Amino acid sequence: DIRYTGGDYDEFFDVDQKALILQAAARELAETKRPVVEIALEAGYGSQQAFTRAFRREYGCTPWKYRRVGVFSAKYGQFSLRMNRQKPAAFAAYERSRMAA
User: N or C: more exposed end of the chain, with fewer CB within 10 A?
Assistant: First the structure.
């Protein structure tokens, strides 16, 4: 779920939802130590590889390189990635596998 927390509302409606999700994921990469796979699955991607391809198209680098720089710069206003409803199936399966380990 994407939450709008500031900026221009017109800009919010002009931006592709996937770009907003990737921006929220970029914030998570820069500001947390959460595993990339968790961020990818929470963002709704079926695999870390699919997330990496989409992230590279949007940001011009891999999620790991983005994390190493460690500086988040919002492209489309302020958004955050928050799962407050039903989690994507892939993320739920990932969580179950981590708990079982």
Answer: C
